Amino acid sequence: MKNYKYIFLLVGLSLIGCSDLEEEPIGLLAPDGFFNTTNDIQTAANAAFGHMTHEDFWGRKMSLTLMLRGDMVAIGDPTTSTQRIEHDVFNVPADNGMIDGYWLRVFQIIAAANQAIAGAEDVDVAEEIKNPITAQAYFARAFANFHLVRQFGDIPYLTGPITDLEAASSISKTPAAEVYTNIIADLEFAKTWLPNKQVARSIPAKSAAHSYLALVYLTMGEYQKAYDEAKGVIDNEGTYNLGLETDFQDLFDATIIDGSIEPIFVLDFIGVSDGDDGRDYQAALTGLRDDEQYGLGGGWSVAVPSLEVYNTWDGRDYRKAVSLDTTAVFDGITVPYTAFKESGGSGRGVNRPHIAKYTRHIGVTATGNGRGSEQNYMMMRYAEVLLIAAEALNEVNPGTTEAEGYINRIRERARNGNGSEFPADVSGLSQDDFRTMVLEERKWELAFEFKRWYDIARRKLGVEVFNASGLEGEKPNFDPAQDYLLPIPADELARNPNLEPQNPGY
């Protein structure tokens, strides 16, 4: 729902990382007196969310990095940028351009959030009036830092605007455990003050903070707390207006998703092409080159599922048909995936099914290979909360019908009335088998939704999934002593030695 535009007024007035400080002095506070009303707090908070749809973040760089580092998606076009291929094959140098791009953008999100939080102190109204707005900024700061700490470990944690360049150039890293403590505190504030519902799921409500607390605790291995938070969301399903969408395909239909009660927090692309702000690159990156079937001009065949994803995924599971395209149209002729490369005019496709979630129903005004998109990208949806609850409960109290019930709600939709009772209801699994099952269920339910790499990293599954029997075959460069974290950008270390040491192995 595009019912408000993001404001970028404060972008250049806050610290946005340590890059290019000599050339662009951007470590300054907003002008004194800017924050006078709650509208001013909202302006700064909007800037934080606006940065999330930039090409540097979810438009392309961070989202594509996460997808390629998992075990389900590989490079389809070998002529694509080397900086992308490096993530696919785990050969990432400290000057990788993907990381450089979004490191800076994430700190712009944090800077705008910090401006809103600091500025709110100058707005002389009651807490019950301003805190529900300020809580949006707390949520944005937690959301941004949660991505950073999972990818880099110890990171610079900024609690407020940076007032001068000297301070900016002397920032050091905060231990990951302390970063998580701060993320939890921000989400607790947001959970306390955000309303139960917002006018759009692109504006965080209490359910978003509540759900992310569950995911944060799951990531930390604090399973009782993860379950408690997830159960709190489930128990408030009616209050938060949440539920599972009846038809899985509808979750990826831009023309109707705004009315769904399953999304909890989404990024809403507005199709703005000026400087790539607000453009949706996933349709292009995941779409098949030269494919005529969606009227988008074809995609770029950059991020393509491995053939084993298709071969392994049982065809009775409705989610497979929703998630994958196995045919395309070239010169008006429908061809199977086995002939994609030979049939396309450029010859740069690949003979594998392509991701359909971001190309099939992208909206009536989509343009430019789908980059001018009406799509919403679900950062958190209710099905994931059910999965979190099931996984966490199995760790603290295995063998419960409650945990089984959460999985069975999701599997019932996946059957889509196919009459085969597949995927079958879960019952009677051991703790170890349930753990394996729920991670597999996350893999299929959340396929290509940028979650898989984080699951691999938090459960330390790399050696298992990147061997010869994995979906992408052996990835010999994967090193579990190094590759669960990314390198701190080399330019950042050169400009600010206080960010040393570099992450192991880089």
From TrEMBL:
<dbReference type="GO" id="GO:0009279">
    <property type="term" value="C:cell outer membrane"/>
</dbReference>
<protein>
    <submittedName>
        <fullName>RagB/SusD family nutrient uptake outer membrane protein</fullName>
    </submittedName>
</protein>
<feature type="domain" description="RagB/SusD">
    <location>
        <begin position="353"/>
        <end position="506"/>
    </location>
</feature>
<keyword id="KW-0472">Membrane</keyword>
<dbReference type="Pfam" id="PF14322">
    <property type="entry name" value="SusD-like_3"/>
</dbReference>
<dbReference type="InterPro" id="IPR012944">
    <property type="entry name" value="SusD_RagB_dom"/>
</dbReference>
<dbReference type="Pfam" id="PF07980">
    <property type="entry name" value="SusD_RagB"/>
</dbReference>
<dbReference type="InterPro" id="IPR011990">
    <property type="entry name" value="TPR-like_helical_dom_sf"/>
</dbReference>
<keyword id="KW-0732">Signal</keyword>
<dbReference type="InterPro" id="IPR033985">
    <property type="entry name" value="SusD-like_N"/>
</dbReference>
<comment type="similarity">
    <text>Belongs to the SusD family.</text>
</comment>
<keyword id="KW-0998">Cell outer membrane</keyword>
<feature type="domain" description="SusD-like N-terminal">
    <location>
        <begin position="90"/>
        <end position="218"/>
    </location>
</feature>
